[in-house]
Amino acid sequence: MDPILTAFGLVFDPSVMLVILGAAVFGMFVGAMPGLTATMATALLVPVTFFMDPVPALGAIVTATAMAIFAGDIPAAMLRMPGTPASAAYADESYLMARKGQLDLNLGVNVVFSALGGIVGVFFLVLCAPSLAEMALNFSSFEYFWLACLGLTCAVFIGTGDPLKGFVSLLLGLAIVCIGIDPAAGVPRFTFGNVDLMSGVNFIAVMIGAFAVSELLRGAVDLHRQGHVIVPQVGNVFRGVGGVMRRYWLNFIRGSLMGTLIGALPGAGADIAAWVSYAMAKRFSRTPEKFGTGHVEGVVEAGASNNSAVAGAWIPALVFGIPGDSITAIVIGVLYMKGMNPGPTVFTENPQFIYAVFIIFILANIIMVPLGWAAIKSMKQVLRIPRTILLPLILLFCIVGAFAMTNSNYGIVLMLIFGVLGWFMEENGVPVAPMILGLVLGEMLEQNFMTSMIKSDGLWLAFFERPIAGALGALTLLIWLLMLGRGALTALRRPAQA
Predict the structure, then answer these.
(1) What is the pLDDT of residues 269-295, one digit of tens each?
(2) Is the Cα dihedral 31, 37, 42, 47 positive or negative?
(3) Spatial distance between the Cα atoms of 392 and 401, rounded to a whole number of angstroms
(4) Residue 459 dihedral angles phi and psi, to the nearest 5°
(5) Residues 420, 155: contact at Cβ < 8 Å?
C-alpha cells in the first residue's frame, strides 16, 4: 500500500499537475491537426522530458497521447479529415452523421466513449499486464500473418456499396505497399530509380491526401454553390449520449476489450484496433445496412477501441520492454533515460513510478471530457469561416503535416497525388477506406509472410502447426469460405429473381 500512497503524492504535486494540463492541451492541438499524429506529439515531447523527473516526464507522454488519439475525431467529423490514423476507420461515418445534423451527438459520443474506453484499457493494464503480455509474447510471425489476413478481411465490411469496388480499392492499397525495398531480398521494387520511393510510400501522407485533399477538391468544385460551411447551432454535445450507451453498451464493451487485446500485440496499435472494431461492429450489427450512412454504432465501438489500445500497448512495454506501438517505442527510450529499465523488475524496483503511470492514465481520461468539450466548442467556430478562406488554411495544415512526415517535398507530392486519386475514386463509387486499410496492414502482411516462409523452409503447413496460428488460420479461412458461399448464393438468386 505504501507505493500506491507514494504514487498519489507524486502525481498530485502541483508542478506535476501543471505539466499534465499543459501536455493535455498540446496533445489536443496536435491530434486535431490533420497529419500531426499522436506519435509526433510524443516525439516532440521527448526533448522536454530530458529536464523532468520520471513522473512528470511519463505523465506528459501519457496525457498527450490519450488526448491526441481522441482529438483526431474532431476534424474527422467536421471536415472528413482524420487528425490521426486511429480516426481514419470511422471518419466517413462521423462526417455523414454531421451532414445529417448529428454533429453534436457524434462528437459527444466520441469524447465520452474515448474516455471510457481508455479507462477500461487502464483497468486491464493494472490487473492483467503480466498475463496479457505473456500471451502477446506467444505471437510469432505465423500468428501475425494470420492476424494481418484477418484484418484485411475487414475491407469487406468497411466498404459500402459494390463489394467488387471495395476489393479493387484494397488491392490498390496492397500494391502501393510493394513500392520500396523488398523486406526479404533487400532490393528496390517499383522505384523507377527514384531515391525517395526507396523509402516506400508514407502512409500518413497518403491518408492526408486520400481523405483531406480529396475533400478539399470536392469543396472547391462546389464552392460556387455554397459560400460557407453549414454548421449546426452550438448545442449540448452530451445530449443523447446516455441513450446511445444504453442501446450500444455491448459495442462499447466489445470495442474496449478488442482494443486492449490488439494494443497488447507488439506492432499492432490503435490504428489496427479501430479498423478491426469498426468491421466487427458492422458484422454483428442488427442493422448493417445503416453503416456508411451516418450510423453511430460503429463510432461507439471503434472510438472505444482505439483509446483502450493506447493503454494496452503499455502492457508489453512495461512488462517485457517490447514496444506495443511506435509511441511505446519512444516511451521505452524515456524509461531507460530515467533509469527505469522496463521488464519484470520495474514492478519491484520502482513500483511507485508504475502506479503513478496508472493513476495518470485514469486522470488523463477523466480530464479528456472537459478539455474535449472545450476543443469541440472552439473547432465549431472555425467552421463558420467562409470556405474561400477556410479551404486554403486547411490545405496549408495538410502540407505541413505531409512535409513533417518525410522532411522533404516528397511527402507533399504524395499527398497531392493521392488527393487527386482519392477524389477520382470516390467520384466513381470506389471507396477509399479499403485502400487505406491495405496500406496499414500490407507491410505487416508481407514481412511476416516472408519471415514465416524462410523459417519454415517454404512449408505451407507450418502456418498451422502452432496452436494459436492454427486457430487464427482456421478462423480466417472459415470467414473467407463463408463470404464466398454467401456471394455465390447471391449470384445464383439474381437470375431466379429476374
Answers:
(1) 787 888 888 888 888 888 888 888 888
(2) negative
(3) 14
(4) -85, 120
(5) no
Rounded Cα gap, residues 248 and 380, in angstroms:
27
Distance in angstroms (rounded) separating the CA atoms of residues 243 and 263: 28
Question: What cell was used for 279?
Answer: 468491421
Contacts of 483 (CB under 8 A, 6+ apart): 153, 156
pLDDT beyond 70 at 374: yes
**Band of residue 135 on the pLDDT scale cut at 50, 70, 90:** low
The proportion of the chain whose per-residue pLDDT surpasses 90, expressed as a percent, equals 6
- Rounded-to-integer distance, Cα 431 and Cα 416, Å: 18
User: Which stretch of DSSP H or E encloses residue 247?
Assistant: helix 241-247
Task: Convert 312-344 to b/e letters by CB count within 10 Å (16 or more is b).
Answer: bbbbbbbbbbbbbbbbbbbbbebbeebebebee
Do residues 82 and 72 touch, judged by C-beta distance below 8 A? yes
In the structure, what pLDDT confidence band is assigned to residue 487 with cuts at 50, 70 and 90? low
Radius of gyration of the chain (CA): 22
**Are the beta carbons of 259 and 124 closer than 8 angstroms?**
no
Phi first, then psi: give them for residue 354, nearest 5 degrees. -65, -45
Cα 461 to chain centroid distance, Å, stands at 33
User: For 306-341, what is each residue's pLDDT tens digit?
Assistant: 888 888 888 777 776 666 666 777 787 777 777 777
Residue 29: pLDDT above 70? Answer: yes
Measured CA to CA, the distance from residue 115 to residue 28 in angstroms comes to 13
Helices (H), 269-350: 269-283, 296-312, 314-320, 326-337, 346-349
CA distances from 217 to 316, 418, 421, 427 (A): 42, 12, 11, 11
Q: What does the block give as the cell for 198? A: 526507396
Q: Using one digit for the tens of pLDDT, what is the confidence trace for 136-162?
A: 667 788 888 888 887 777 666 655 556
Residues 6+ positions from 249 with CB-CB distance below 8 Å: none
467's CB contacts (< 8 A; 6+ apart) are none
Sorted by sequence, the CB contacts under 8 Å of residue 178 that are 6+ apart come out as 189, 190, 442, 446
Question: What is the DSSP secondary structure assignment for residue 89, as one 8-state letter?
Answer: G
**Interior CA angle at 197 toward 193 and 198, to 5°?**
80
Cell of 118: 481508455
Q: Is pLDDT above 50 for 217?
A: yes
